[in-house]
Queue: 2 jobs
Job 1
Amino acid sequence: MYVILVYDVNQKRVGKMLKLCRKYLNWIQNSVFEGEITEVKLKELIMRADKIIKDEEDSIILFKSRDEKWLDKEIIGKEKNPLDFII
Amino acid sequence: MYVILVYDVNQKRVGKMLKLCRKYLNWIQNSVFEGEITEVKLKELIMRADKIIKDEEDSIILFKSRDEKWLDKEIIGKEKNPLDFII
């Protein structure tokens, strides 16, 4: 399964979320990840993310597609993330 | 066409980008938008966004699908955006 994951979490929890998501998906922008993942691994990721976020403040949006081929991706502006070095 | 748009722009330009994107798409998270849009309108949006962003600093990612049905959306945590009032 192909997923796009976008999170909007409080600054205090950004580091943890970033580290977690990078274990499962590819980092493509500040708070955006994408990649192929199995149902089982995705459930594991959601479970672990759920422990990091505060439901009243943070949110995660997941877009799931059976196949990446249904989606075209276009990037406007810079491609690389300059925050890479802080991890 | 169904699109997901995510931007990562400098704080100085966030207001302008937000205002622009809201004219064309539905705002679903801090810097995430989605919606049905025609090819023509999307080109217009990209052209206008291109004038706002600085290519060396900012980026916009577009995921395009011919049909929303190829994507499932799941939201974890809060659904509403508390920043709504600053617009």
Note: Strands of chain B lie at 2-8, 26-29, 32-36, 59-65, 72-77.
Job 2
Amino acid sequence: MPVGTVGTVKGLSTEQVRQTGAQIILGNTYHLSLRPGDDLVARLGGLHSFMDWGGPILTDSGGFQIFSLAKLAKVSERGVSFRSHIDGRLLDLTPEHSMEIQQNLGSDIMMVLDHLPPLPSPAEVIKESCERTIRWAKRCKDFHADGAHSASQALFGIVQGGLDLKQRRHCADGLVDLDFAGYAIGGLSVGEPPPEMYRVTGGTTPFLPVERPRYLMGVGRPEDLLASIARGVDMFDCVMPTRNGRNGLAFTDAGPLKMRNQKHREDLRPLDENTPSPLRHLSRAYLRHLFMAREMLGPIALSLHNLAYYQNLMKRAREAIAADRFLDFCRERYLGWGRDPNEFLPTGL
Amino acid sequence: MPVGTVGTVKGLSTEQVRQTGAQIILGNTYHLSLRPGDDLVARLGGLHSFMDWGGPILTDSGGFQIFSLAKLAKVSERGVSFRSHIDGRLLDLTPEHSMEIQQNLGSDIMMVLDHLPPLPSPAEVIKESCERTIRWAKRCKDFHADGAHSASQALFGIVQGGLDLKQRRHCADGLVDLDFAGYAIGGLSVGEPPPEMYRVTGGTTPFLPVERPRYLMGVGRPEDLLASIARGVDMFDCVMPTRNGRNGLAFTDAGPLKMRNQKHREDLRPLDENTPSPLRHLSRAYLRHLFMAREMLGPIALSLHNLAYYQNLMKRAREAIAADRFLDFCRERYLGWGRDPNEFLPTGL
């Protein structure tokens, strides 16, 4: 899922986002509730029509940004109090309030408010954050089930538990008992080494029902996506294709390219003939020029390319799964990227 | 003509520029010769393929930017020496060199190197700049006529003469004797009051052949365009639609709108139903949000809107001329913009 933080995938029209093959986008509850405000978005007809996106939208709970962006976040059983990163206003977010905001935004998939412990944390802190995450998930579900929106908006639970597989399983079990429409794995990709992320992902998915979507939040590099699919993940969101694109990095089947590099100066080849970006005919030489001259079209073109690259990678992965050759596909891809497949794929397959 | 300074109309793909109705764009010789370099552009196949624009391109001579952007510009009969505004390199530009650069870029319309006197200047300085402009125009024409490019690239002369109609006529006569494919009026819109610009434009066009394009350089506001068409001008270029768009100003038939204004906060209307921008369905409320959140899509959407507004204004002007009701059209438009038509239209019509 491309990330449209404040109601726009940065630099792109929704028509362009559609052209990359994206089917669903993510909106950030924290950002949108601060600006322009979820009440305003609701009065104007909801996020879909506000930003002119006809496809599905997933909204996060706001929790992750509070713990990473806001100042002075304080957690109590009731919820989280924090100061806005924009104007320092003192605000708070409870499980019920997160539901209200997401109902105002009118997303198709809402996420429960979870308690994200910093990594590393003592086992006791991890355990308590899991218990609170389950209690908050229940409050979210109860609040949402009572409302008028429950039929049109799906609600996903979020598994926490740090790097402790016992806690992860405990949290997954608690959430599955509550019966959510889908399950996310949260609290990863926050600085731990990739093998740790793979270990925890692979140790969590077996406890989530296969017939419901399994969503790894905030991940990641192309190699992380395949490694996680191999461990049972169905959905991802990440700012990497757009953020790295804005910074001049293009993902390709031969590995990432730094567009400012002198070697592209006279290279008339497109970035990648097989990536169906709407701007795929632009040459590397021209893209390099745009970045050297700090022209907006450079970040735009690479955002489009990277989103199309990610979407196409997922499409190829789905096709490989359907053809029962997913692991072969992964091995080819890791070798193409110049990586050792054994670093990424589960052992014993 | 939309302005594509360094080989890109800022923030827009060429496909989007095409969708605004633009038929020809302008590239800046000064900027492109410094970065990425006209020799590089030539090796890569010329500016059209470099930036992926299938329509015509006009390049300026580089003179205007040297006088406005570069440091320490010094004029001699041979040409202009100056320091690059990017890295301070000492460079020079002669009439012949300007032709070479524009031949390297491969534009469809090239402009002669002219001598732009600062306004106000003593009559003697204006006179000398006119004489030099004519001599340089001849050197440009001679150089271009000798080359292999003369058949595929048209060359326009540029009339100088400050605010002195006698000098303007003298310069126009000198250039018309040299027989250019089209004629530009330069050295205006540099800070003089609009009525002065209209007076000089209206006092110059009668001395330029009606069967050749007449081009007023660097103009301007929508009201300036109609006022200048009424005085015989056929072509314009200006950064105003894109630059003002990036800064949050939208041109409409009811006058300009400042998109950050609080009054747009809940306004679900599009900017202007009749302006065929590719993003015309976005609401004012959403556009305001994009500018308040400093999102790239705001400047992009308003650049598209303003270019489409300008193109559509010119289309309506052409239709009014064909229907023999151009002055009526102008009067309606000035009243629509809340302006007094008599401030803009020539007297005695």
Note: Chain A has three domains: 1-111, 119-238, 246-343.
